[in-house]
Structures are given as structure tokens and as C-alpha cells.
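In this section we walk through a basic example: taking a raw amino acid sequence and producing a predicted 3D structure, encoded as C-alpha cells. The instruction is simple. Fold the sequence below.
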Amino acid sequence: MLSEFSTCQIAYVVPDVRVAAARHAALFGSGPFFTVENIEFSWVKYRGQPTDWDHTIAIGQWGDIGIEFMQQNNAGPSVLLDVTPEGSTRGAVHHMAYMVPDPAGMAARFAEAGYPLALHGALGNGIEVFMVDTLDLYGHMIELYEPTPALLAIHGYVRDQSIGWDGTDPIRTLTF
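The resulting C-alpha cell sequence is shown next.
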């Protein structure tokens, strides 16, 4: 079963993705980080119910590890607020992301073991997202994706930009 997994990234929920990314870059030399405002979903469900969840991310590379910072832009329940209460000024590990051949099947196996699906949706570019509530098991959630060409292109681009990066312009906007 372990051969099915490919660790994709460590993600943090933070009050401000730009501040967190700049701090990580300064402390660890990671980056550059690429921001995406108001992540677009074709559809998204939070704990089985449709939602209008709005969040911003900053993604970067730290050696072999992908790093993601996430901030919520609107009020209301979400997978981010499941980890850190609304209004908190502290960051926290939110999830570990994995690429797996069958994310729906893997999410179902987690659910059968007592770890329910907290979020399921499709991004505007077609990438399907499964977020499993493993807070009681690991203290963070698990995010599952299929390694689609679109997902591999994003992660490959961010990784490629980190190679030989000289530390200038640590916060950028992701454009494709």
C-alpha cells in the first residue's frame, strides 16, 4: 500500500499567506512562493453540503518538500476553521497532501476506518480534491489528489522555479 503514495506537500493554515511565505523563505531559504487568490472551484462540498468556501494560497518548494500556506477569505465553516478557529492569529499544520492513483477509493478506505471526508470538490482546472478528517489520528488532515497532468504541471513549475533561485522576489503570483 505504501507504494501507492507520493507525498506532495505540507500545508499550513495561516492568517496571511504572504507574511507566512516571506517568513519561511527568510528562515529556510525556501521558495519562491506563488500566490493564487480566491481559489476557484467548479463545485465544492464541506462535510457533504455545498459551500462557497473562498481561500487564498501561497505554494513554494523547500528542497524536495512542497510547502503550501492557506488563508480563509470568507466567514463560515470550512476545513481551515476545523483546524484553527476563526479569528486566530496563529498558524498550524493543516494537512499533508498525497498523490494517489485512486483518491476516491483511498478516501473511502479512510471513511470505513472512521475518518470521514471533510471536503470534496473540483477546482476550476478540473483537479479533484479529497480532504480527509484525520485530526484525531494525526493532528492534521490528509489531502488526496490523482497525479493528473494539470496537477503535475503546477507542482513541476513550482519545483523548477526553485532550482537555482537566488532569493529575490520571494512572493509571486501564479499565472498559467
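Looking at the output, two observations stand out. The mean pLDDT is 94. The chain is about 25% helix and 35% strand. In the next section we compare this with other chains.
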